[in-house]
Amino acid sequence: MDCIFCKIASGEIPSSMVYEDEKVAAFRDLSPVAPQHILVVPKKHYDSLEDIPMDEMDIISDIHRAIRKIAEQEGFNEDGYRIINNCGKNGGQEVPHIHYHLLAGKKLTKLVVD
Ligand code: 5GP
Ligand code: ZN
């Protein structure tokens, strides 16, 4: 499958990888919108949250577990962070491989929806 995040997660395309385990990979966003902007993805391809079979939803726990580890590793666990998942067209998702935006490094403004 010709998917950019599959290629990054498998190491086929080089990226600034910050974390990797058996099921999850995390790398820096190409166009950061915060001092720290990391994308956390499952290594297995799913288009979006809506594409994950109910009996495979444990991957969401795996992603959140990885986020905790990354926050500790990168040192923003104490001051906090924001996680965003854009799901589908109306959610503003542009890359069709499920990913969580992990944003940190400053006090973010109240969530704005436009
Ligand atoms: P979405 O709008 O789908 O939630 O977010 C996609 C994100 O992927 C955007 O923040 C965009 O900057 C980032 N992005 C798109 N292409 C690449 C790429 O090739 N490499 C990396 N590291 N980030 C990318
Ligand atoms: Zn993919």
Automatic annotation (TrEMBL):
Please tell me which stretches of this chain the record labels as motif Histidine triad motif: 97-101
Organism domain of life? Bacteria
A Pfam family matched in the record = HIT
- Classification via PROSITE patterns: HIT_2 (PS51084)
Q: Which residues form the HIT domain?
A: 4-114
InterPro entries hit by this protein? Histidine_triad_HIT, HIT-like, HIT-like_sf
- Per its record, how is this protein called by name? Histidine triad nucleotide-binding protein
What are the top taxonomic ranks of the organism? Answer: Bacteria, Bacillati, Bacillota, Clostridia, Peptostreptococcales
